[in-house]
Specification:
heterodimer; A: mainly alpha; 70% helix; flat; B: FAD/NAD(P)-binding domain; 7-stranded mixed β-sheet
């Protein structure tokens, strides 16, 4: 099973969540937090995580379907952990704090809403492949 | 050898009030308490606004997420999950020393200095005459006691439609905190639909809070730093520890921490109080002339059941049915938030269909501020890459309504003590909590009315969350007040029937539990009981 280092995992997740590279401090913070979380007991969940890390393009669909079908899965837990750590970094905090949205930004919300539906459908199919 | 005239068990809202009354009346007090405190996070919190911290402090993860990331890793449904890391000491050691087994009741208890008062939302409500009578509390005595307690703690609020349900007739109320813009939209709509809302039995206004907006007694007015869920550094919010800190300077007050009270025994004009040391469980007995139990309804029930050694008893229990209803104010979505405010309740919405102030439901309305976005993301059933911008946009338009319903006694709500050799006290509390079909129907009926009312006020209910019985953190009624001497009841002055010198100052005696925030009434009752104890000591 492909398992990158925890710091490598942090970089993959951060890129997926906010589209940005992170520094070593942030990656080390995630590594420490992931140590507290553990690696999960469910074999299927671990397969899903490994697949997502090996095929980064699949992260979105697998995250979307996990949110619906396996909200307590290790993939979801690790992504939430990374998200919380990014939120608590001053350099990324604005991405999480409320702000006045322009017309373009409001329109983009419709795109995100549509994309998440498409991802959930794709994720459903992917789950079958991984199983 | 007597350790003190009066022993008070517990340092929470009721214990601190009872002790203050005894000390101010010339008596002496030994307070027995576990007294867990936060020895770590307080030193990490900078004296800055929440938003400033978020934008500048590279160490913020330590107190926002927790040193062990406990805020993120804790299950959202576990006891105390809503507590931020600097408040989590409130539930420290509870699982070990206050074990509970229950299929349907999930309470929050505390062994902290200040008890549950250390995480109190600060809402203050005066029970109406009808509610006091239903709870079997003396109307005149409680009214006088409310005045005393309000003067001690300091209350801010506003004279509006909610006043009859919040601070009512109390004087000396400080001006209210400013209204958050999201709540302001709802309040403006309420003003527009006021007559229709009143016709449906709904009354809205600003909350009365134990929060200073004007400095007094060495405490500062709130600086609106929005750190209310994390810190009491300003001392604007009244917390029991503030009163305890003042009492500890008094020579007639002693505080014994790290002591867990297990039982009492009354013999030959004295009361023996048996305690366990928290570390090595060493037993130590203290002696007094009068004992005041203020350990919280569930804690006091344990102590009384262990001590009275009557045939195995089931005690009644009351706890307000409770639901969270997140609502969206579309007009406020995708907007920035003002830099300064507070995360405490912005509005209260009371449902009083008979307009008699005798059967009132209460909803506290909070803006989603000063809590991190990940708490919302965790509950969102979509991928996190898309959830972040979507929830970030919705966050500024989000209101969280916490609805509570009044509660009366019925057969399916009870507790008893069961043996369990694996616990330090060799027992555990078993609780069953089930509403009758009629009670469930009434709660459901009122909930629908609340949903309709919020839609009328421009706030769309998104979902209904039921954290389970016990989650309102309002507990009462295990030893109901009674005029007749019966086992497991209290005399009108708070004395445990069958004893001469044991008194209960918490909510155990309330025979009815109004939906209005309970804490001010608990404190008023504690003052009333302690004043009575003082007279008997004299």
């Amino acid at each position: 099973m492909y398992e990158p280092s925890a710091e490598g995992e942090a970089r993959v997740f951060a890129k997926y969540l906010i589209g940005r590279d992170i520094d070593d401090t942030c990656a080390q913070l995630y590594a420490r937090a992931a140590g507290e979380l553990g690696s999960g007991q469910d074999v299927r969940d671990r397969k899903i995580l490994a697949f997502a890390l090996r095929h980064v393009w699949a992260l979105g669909p697998l995250d979307a379907i996990s949110a619906l079908r396996r909200p307590k899965s290790i993939l979801r837990a690790k992504l939430l952990l990374m998200s919380a750590i990014l939120e608590a970094r001053p350099e990324f905090s604005e991405k999480f704090l409320p702000a006045d949205h322009s017309g373009m930004e409001r329109a983009a919300l419709l795109y995100y809403a549509g994309r998440t539906v498409a991802r959930a459908i794709a994720g459903f199919a992917l789950l079958g492949v991984i199983a | 050898m007597i350790d003190s005239d009066v022993i008070v068990v517990g340092s929470g809202a009721t214990g601190s009030m009872a002790a203050q009354t005894i000390i101010e009346g010339g008596g002496s007090v030994l307070m027995l308490d576990v007294g867990r405190t936060d020895r770590h996070y307080a030193g990490l919190l900078p004296e800055q606004d929440y938003l400033e911290i978020r934008r500048t402090d590279p160490e913020q993860h330590r107190y926002l997420l927790g040193e062990s990331f406990e805020s993120v890793l804790a299950s959202s449904s576990s006891t105390g999950a809503q507590l931020t890391p600097p408040r989590r000491h409130v539930v420290a050691d509870v699982d070990r020393f206050l074990p509970i087994s229950s299929p349907n009741f999930f309470p929050m208890e505390s062994l902290a200095l200040g008890g549950l008062g250390s995480a109190w939302g600060l809402g203050c409500c005066v029970f109406s005459g009808a509610e006091l009578k239903a709870a079997r509390l003396p109307v005149a005595g409680m009214k006088a006691a409310y005045d005393v307690v309000a003067a001690r703690i300091g209350i801010s609020g506003e004279r509006d439609d909610a006043q009859p349900y919040t601070f009512s007739y109390l004087d000396g109320i400080q001006p209210s905190i400013p209204l958050d813009p999201t709540a302001a939209v709802v309040y403006k709509n309420y003003a527009r639909h006021r007559n229709r809302m009143h016709g449906d039995g709904f009354y809205m206004g600003r909350p009365a809070l134990a929060l200073l907006t004007e400095s007094r007694d060495g405490r500062n007015a709130t600086q609106l730093r929005d750190m209310d869920f994390y810190s009491d550094a300003e001392r604007a919010a009244w917390r029991p520890w503030i009163t305890i800190e003042t009492l500890r300077k008094h020579e007639r007050f002693q505080y014994a921490g790290d002591r867990f009270v297990t039982r009492f025994e009354e013999r030959e004009g004295e009361v023996s109080v048996v305690t366990l040391a928290m570390g090595d469980l060493e037993e130590r007995t203290y002696r007094c002339r009068r004992l005041i139990l203020a350990s919280g309804t569930l804690g006091t029930a344990r102590i009384v059941l262990r001590s009275q050694r009557r045939p195995a008893a089931s005690l009644p229990l009351l706890c307000n049915p409770f639901a969270y209803i997140p609502c969206l104010v579309p007009a406020r979505a995708g907007r920035s938030m003002p830099e300064r405010n507070t995360g405490l309740a912005q509005l209260e919405l009371f449902h009083d269909p008979g307009q008699r102030n005798d059967d009132v439901a209460m909803a506290s309305i909070y803006s989603y501020r000063s809590l991190m976005l990940f708490r919302l993301l965790r509950e969102t059933p979509i991928d996190l890459q898309d959830a972040r911008p979507l929830m970030r946009a919705l966050m500024s338009g989000l209101l969280i309504m916490a609805v509570q319903y009044p509660e009366s006694r019925s057969a399916g709500k009870y507790l008893r003590l069961e043996p369990d050799a694996a616990t330090p006290t060799r027992d555990r509390l078993h609780v069953n909590y089930e509403l009758t079909r009629d009670e469930n129907a009434r709660v459901g009926w009122r909930e629908k009315l609340y949903l309709r009312a919020m839609r009328r006020l421009g706030a769309w209910p998104l979902r209904r969350l039921y954290p389970g019985h016990g989650s309102s953190i309002h507990y009462a009624g295990t030893l109901p007040f009674s005029d007749m001497e019966k086992p497991y009841t209290l005399s009108p002055d708070g004395r445990v029937w069958g004893t001469n010198k044991i008194f209960v100052a918490d909510g155990s005696g309330f025979a009815y539990l109004p939906a209005k925030g309970l804490t001010l009434s608990l404190m008023a009752n504690a003052h009333r009981v302690a004043a009575g104890v003082l007279k008997t000591t004299a």
